[in-house]
Amino acid sequence: MVDVDQNLLKAEELLEAATKAEGKNTEEALKIANQAKEIAIKFNLENVIARSNMRKGRCHWISGNFDLAIKDLSEALELSTKLEDHETKAESLIGLGNVYITMELPDQAIVNYNSALEIVEEKSLDDQKTKIYNNLGTLHEDLKNFEKALEYYQKSYDMARKNQDAYGEAIAHLNMGNVYLKSERLGKAFENIKIAHKHAKENQQHLFLAHCYYALGQYYQVTKDYEQSITELKQGILSAEESNDFYILIRIYLELANAFDNVKKVNEAKKYFEKAFTFAKQMNSKEFMPKVHEQLAKFYERNNFKEEAFIHYKAYHESNTVVQENRRIERIKNIEFQTKLESAVQESNTYRQLTSELRKNYKQMKVLSEIGRSLTATNQIEEIYDQLYENINKLMVADVLLVGFYNEQSNAIDFNLKIENNKKYDKFSLSLENDSSLSVYSFLKKRSLKIDNMNKEYKHYIKEVKTSSGGMMFSAMYAPLIVENKAIGVLSIQAKNKATYNETHKVLFETLASYLAIALNNALHSKELARLNKKFKALSEKDGLTGIPNRRVFDQQYKIMWNNASIKQIPLSMIFIDIDDYKEFNDYYGHLVGDEVIRKVATFLDDFKEDDMFLARYGGDEFVIICHKDKQEVESFAEILKNQFKEKVNIKNNDDSLSISLGIGTIIPKESDDGNKFLNFVDAQLYKSKSKGKDHVTSKNY
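User: That's the sequence. What structure does it adopt?
Assistant: Structure tokens below.
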């Protein structure tokens, strides 16, 4: 018994140390929590196991390892529920809420926060109440409900002050500062962030300090003091490295890169964007990768790095698809876990058996899971609509089904799907200025609605209700389609009878809307990716200066024409064209005039070449033409080209005349011939033309 007591004391001391370390060095806190858990498992100290898992889950959340965080926090919640350890249960629920907020699953977050709030209010757990108020504030901040967020942050601050919790006060100050910054109340933003920064610095709380520097960096970016922003963010890097928290480190790198981009220091910006990308890959944080890829893609596109932009746009789409699928799976897992937890509770003294309502709900959740899987299994919008209509009546009555997309150009919602009593209707649009539409109301307010009697309840939301077709629908539900806190459309179902839908239906409907938003967003991204693919493919095949095909496309075309000539045993001729004395000309007149020369030469050659010839910029001031003509035909063409060039190509306000030298090779390729050797052979003919002086043509059969 003495051993158990001693080890319990040791484990408690380790957990206390892990709690203190969490704000300074997450890696160290995780290591200590693991040590506490090892002791707890050895001596079967279940309360300590639960608390160790809770602490580990928090550390994984801070570090961005969300899968591990959910696993540890869920285990802590399950065990603390069984032990009726209310404090650990509340902390675990808060932790899960934090993870789901970071994963942008606000519906799951609020379920956990509300459950935690019920416990802490019933058991008067004031320390946890401070955290919940703070986290509910974060939830509303993410949803851009800034006044509600400030209300909860103020409650968190008041509770922390009552409990003489200086750290809790400082966190509330930082969070209020961030909200004031987002709502452009800059004076209050700076005042609150500086109070938090002072506390973090005085108490050497490296992780919290990193967040303060990050907030200051954002503040100075908003005020366009980019140099000061850079200074603060560089300090933030040091604090983040001290705390071993790569999650905040990546965010600081991204913000720092944007600051450098704003002062046109592209190379510095590129360096920090790449650092963020490298660390994100090392962390293997699936949730964070889309943000990193998106920011890199936009940066590269802004600065004309076309290939890099396309690579990151494509990676953004792929990683975002993974994230959305993970969120879908996480919703399902959380529903299943809550059901399992509810079952465990009901087997205890509080409940004896599952009610028929819970069994019914569980079946509905399984159906919902299957629908979600089918919706997100395709990127074709019409297939998504078909799956939705085919399955929705398995969950609830849907005499009318409506899906609308926001059209930014027309500032309207385009309803591409309307089915009423199994009949499809034509597409139609509703302006966002329409004050007689519940769909528009739901979209603008980002709010779900459940209506039992349309005749009486519509007036709570709109001036009047109008029906565009069919009979009057008394019951209805509306839900905005939201992706990353942005409304992209609206979903509605309606029924002929009054009071058709209950609160369970509303929860199922809102979750279904989340699945639909994910599926439609993925489909739109696929469509956009195809467009970008086409755009960047076209750009990557053109020479940036002249607009004619580049060396890469030449290599592909040369291979095709070589194989064609070899199979058919027909001539292949190549002309290398070089501008005479271009280097001296460029050095004397400068690069701007030099670039003008290159463009004029390319335009002339493109206009002069015959339809069956292929022209490309080979590199620098050198161009190449390939065609299936014999030596005599191509020589005649080259002589006319050379003479016409001297007459027609000149530089405005410049007395120096331009000329070109040409080298020609002709071959009927045999199987033993080498394409690269033929290239060198033609290049040698060009060299002979140059060695004879300007304005020459040299031609030879291979």
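The radius of gyration is 34 Å.
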